[in-house]
Amino acid sequence: MPPLPDPICQALNLSDGKRCTNTAVVWDDLFCRFHGKQCHGLYAGYKKRNTQLDGLAEQAPEYLKSNETPLANETFERVQDEAVLNQIHSHLFSEYVLLGKVIDARKLHHKHFYPLKLDYGHQAYLDALLNRRHVVHRALEKVVKRTAEVLYAKEKWFKWIGEVQKQEETTREKAAKKVKLEAAMFRRHCKKMQARLRAQREKEEKQRQEAFLETVYQERISAATESDQDVEMWDPIEDFVEDERSKYVDLIKHFLWMEVLAEEEEDDAEKKQPASTSDAKPTPKKKPKKNSKAKDSKAPDVAKKSPEARSTGQNRILDMMDDEDLDPAANDKNTEPDKSNIETEEMMRKRLKEGVEKNYDEVYGAILVGSLETPHGTLTKTPPMDDDEIETLMQDIKEIKILLFCRLLLSHASLLPAALQAANVEEFINDTKITEADLRDLCLKVEQPSLQDIRDACADLLRGDEPETEEAKEEEEYEDLSFEDIILQDRRYSRLQGPEWYYDNLLAQRSKLLGEPITSLKELLNLVPELPKKTKIQICGKSIWNYSSESSMSREGWLQFSVLANGCDLRKAVQLCRNWDEFSQLNFLASWQYFPASNWMSWGTDRLTKQLHDLGFFPFFGDLAADNFSRHFQVGGARSSQRRRHDFVEARNIMVGHMKRNDSVTRRFLQYCSMRTGEILLAVRDGKTGKIITAPRKDEALWTLRSKKGMGRAAKNEWEVELEIGPDYFDFVEMFRNWHLGFDDSYEVWIWHFAPAQSGIHLYNVIVEELRKAWRIQKPIDVYNHQEPFLRTLTRNKETQRVRLIKPGEQVKSLWDEVQEPDKFFIVSDMLKNTTRTVDSDGLVNSSPHIFYSEANAAEDAILFPDELTSPNRNVPFKEVSNAITRLEDGYGVLSKYLAKRAKDASHLSNKPSRPQGDDSDSDKSWNTDDSLAALDGAASKMKPEYDFKDDDGEVTKHWRLPRLWEDHITRINGGPIDAAKKKLLSNVGLLERSSGRVRRGPTDAEFAKNLKSMDRMMLMEKDRGDALLEAFHAGDLEPDAPRKYAETCAIVNGILNQQGADGGHDWLWFALEVLEWLEVRVDSTQYAQVVTAPWPHPFIAQDILKAWAYMAPFFLDLEPCRPAAAFFESEEGRKYQDSPLRDPRQRAATLPDVRTKTSFRYRPKSFWKEWDALVTKGKETCTYYADVYPPEWGVTLRPILAKLYVAGIIAPILVQNHPKVCPGFATLNTEPHRPGKPDLFIDYADRLNASHYPTSWPGLVRPSEFPLFLPRARDFAARNPGSARFAVLRLWSAPHFYPAMLGDGNRIGCSFLDCAARSWRWNFIPKDMPVSEWSMYNNLKTRLDLVARQLGGRVVHRGDVVLVMGADSLDLLRHAMAVTFAIQTKPWFREFDLWKSFVNVDIAFLETLDPYWLD
């Protein structure tokens, strides 16, 4: 039988944790002699420290002995004496250290000497000790914190330190998690730190083993009992504790690039390695496959990706909406990057010197190599840095690491006193009073600082000991809005914007009225943190300020940040930017490869994204695959055996991004986009206020994904909207996006296609083209113009291609000099045809002029942005085009003005601001504003009953007020007797008060305001509409000098009516009432005619007849009924109009208006369209896009005309695809014979593709050639009334391009047209080029004149929009002309006669000498 093998020692080496291989000879053959001694020494030391721990309670300070509060709950707030606190701290610190040694000894004894034995309660006892040590450690922190309060409570920085520590307490990790973090930390850095520890441990083990061998002989001779001193010599716990502390200290030094080992010790450690690091061949690693390839254009294999990877864009948003258990944090891609790879100085130097491989994992799209930004040789690796630049950078980073360390110390209450007393970091980390646990926590912080901490440290280095320039506290931004503006904004976009903006601005309005500081809703609800005062504190000899730098960090600072935060993605770095300029500069520097960081390459490296970035548009969400996702599947039918069924899906491409707020370029871009509704739709959110600045008004324009499926005909099935622009979409995109801005001074711009199933590149092209024009880029090289200031400060090393800052006084070629070199050429790629070509700058402009800023764009901009011609201010917000028509569509009018004034006054009288319901609730219901008008009406109803509504400016009651001349004469009439005939007249027209026999007066302002809410809403709406349309009409009148003439007409008419009526007779008033009696119209009607064509009854009869009288009176000054008009021209106010051409018909007749003719498209000769037809034919032959057939010079004239009409509200972008198959008209430029050299706008309604389906014939059509002729009728009348016949030729006011007549919704598409910029437009009023527009106006006048035909007899005849009135004498003509003017100008109150083109009170001889133009 072979002999049994010798037993092996079961102990594990303390140095490396490996099993001992020596023979077991002691302790029942469990251990070798060495480990037997070590085990016995460890056990003896453990027992000794346990005894010390048990006796420590008797040595506790009196405060702890007498205190009944458990130590875990004790805060020491009752202790005011520093000496008592020091005693408590000394005792707790001793207990903490002793507990640590007991725990470590227990762990070592169990782990290294009895690793295979059962637990026997070991872990339970260890857990009790660990819990006790945790309680003591927390008590130590509280003692230190209380000591700091006693010592430093009066220091300026103390309050700030308390807040930092309080925040740290709320985010403190649990002890168990800290242990895991600690283990992970040492695993990451073990290769860097274990060399020293292993060398020391092996040296110590060797010495002990040699000493043991020398004592073996003595032990064999003598079996004497060892002394306690001999036993303690073998106790390893003291060395173990010291080693544990040294680990943390060495790690901190490693993180801070402080010297850890002497050079000779490192050399000794390296010699013990099997092979030198430099000689050993690196193990080849398998390079992971990237998700996208940078060098080829092949798309990644989507089929092999995870479902989440395949779900992108709008599909991903749908998935998120359907997921009821969605956790927003799970979709947050803005987690901190992995900063575990803390580099040594040598590693960082090597990285900067040699460059690193660029990371293109998240780059999707083509990369243009060989460009100015990405030269050849820089695609795969970052360019290396020069030695002097590296040296400067290393010195700065060392200092930044120290500052970062000092800033991190602020959140540790137990470390603060030691940090305040230490002169430097070295002294601080060598302080023996700092516990191991505190060092561990500090290591965890230093190893993985937040990006904000790193930025703050970089900023600390730049600002030094001096604080930043004192800046005024940034206040909430409020527009100068009225109550009515707030109402209209809420009514317009309440479905898209949150109610916070509504309440914020109501509070701001109230504060302005009361003269109080403006209080925001957040301030009212105490949600705005108070900014601390600027203070600093000395930590380890360094000055640390109590606030993060709010100034833009310099390029040097961002360079330091990019190097120090290795592994950080630029998407995370942009969150640290303080404003748009800093963010924009960071983007430009990254695109020019200024930063030697591999992960910053994925930001805008692909050509499509970079082009948007260069133009100031930064997309964060997009889906350009609508053409792939949309489908129209339909089977079955009348001739099929299958039943009808359908499955339709329609998607619109969408792109969302940030743009600079309150910037002229942004304003121009958004304005251009808002005018292209036939291609793209636009919604803009203000990042600062949350206000929706613009969005489509119609809900059907908001969808981006919809579907319909089922059985039967698809036309009978309704679309189901899957995704639409709105609050939910906003929220889910916010969760989906992978980067955010750290400031709110930006616009959030949403752009999506109007037509579904379009190619995404079309949307991209429209955005880029409009961005180029917004930057006013006239040739390709101009794209760099706005980058000139910073390109002049950068230079590129020709050998390494490294871009760096130009040093002061250095004479080198800048990047701007490179950009301006003449040998540059440009790459043009057609993404649809997949072709690429190279051209020079001029060649690209000549081949594609529409993609650059042109003279036509400049002419249009002069109309859209007139302020830019006089002011260089670029800080201008974007606002929707506002005119009378848009305000009318938004509900702007007398009712909204009234309620706004009432709410304003109610708010002014109230003592407290109204707060939103449920101010403590976060639910959407608590923000419900309901209808804004109803809300304001409710606020107004709370006013005191005795409060009298005032309307001093006449803003509200101007519609109802009667002229002063009328009121004065009524007062005078009521002051005297009224004869029976006059009473009968008053009774017939409804002005006699039967009870008093006096003339009925008009309502006072207070009476009107009191009864306003009960009045007919349709009446108020139409009265408001009349005022709005008149304003729009004259704003869109492009005839030279027309606005001045109309203003003069209004001044004369209003001057006559509003003059003081204290003198003179009342004949004019009785005459006006006689005309009403003759027309059988009463002024006392409270009813309103709901029929659109009915001119009366309505409550504004008196105002309308007086206006008709004032229109005619200036031409009959010799008649007594017109005496007040004569008095006006004799007054000081009217004298300036005595010589006006308005009063001299012969002077006016001598000059024909400088306007185009009113002939419609149908009646123009074909020769008129000869040039345009030739262009269209040539375009068809060459398959040229319709907008490209326009000669460039046409746009210079056409586009300003269209812009003027657009600004005035005469035309507007239409939600119709910009295609000739949908829009029948084309805006063209042409010249008429009577205006040579003056081209004008004409609309071609040939409708070559049958878009409008206009009929070829109309029942009852009266052609212009069939209109009555005036001269024959006038001659006949003059013959019947020889010597006394008088005439009036009254021309209805109209602008050169349109008539004052509404265009029905059904006809707007039929009259829509396309312009030379491929935009689709609609007319709000009848265009003169509309087929048979003459007949339309002829019918309008005929319908109205037929209502009074019985009274007028044969005295009135009209031709198109011109009316001939005949009178037997001047007084008879005045009566008939007043009746015609009243009938035409009354309800709906937006038609007026143009007195400058009318001839009143003239004889037949004058008519016969008139140019035929005036009678047509």
Give an account of the 3D structure:
The structure is a single chain. With 1416 residues, the chain is an alpha+beta fold. The chain contains 52 helices and 28 strands. It has a five-stranded antiparallel β-sheet with strand order 3-6-11-7-8. Strands 18-24-23-19-20 form a five-stranded mixed β-sheet, with helices on one face. Strands 4-5-9-10 form a four-stranded antiparallel β-sheet. α40 packs across α42. The protein is elongated and about 155 Å long. The termini are far apart. About 8% of the residues have low confidence.
* Portion in beta strands: 5-15%
Helix content: 40-55%
Give the spatial strand order of the biggest sheet. Answer: 3-6-11-7-8
Q: What is the tally of beta strands? A: 28
Rounded to an integer in angstroms, the radius of gyration calculated over CA atoms is 44 Å
Secondary-structure-based class equals: alpha+beta
Coarse morphology = elongated
Tell me the major beta sheet: 5 strands, antiparallel
* Mean pLDDT metric: 81
> Which stretches are low in confidence, meaning pLDDT under 50 for 5 or more residues running?
220-226, 261-310, 332-340, 470-476, 908-948
End-to-end separation: 139 Å
**If helices are DSSP runs of H or I spanning 4 or more residues, what is the number of helices?**
52
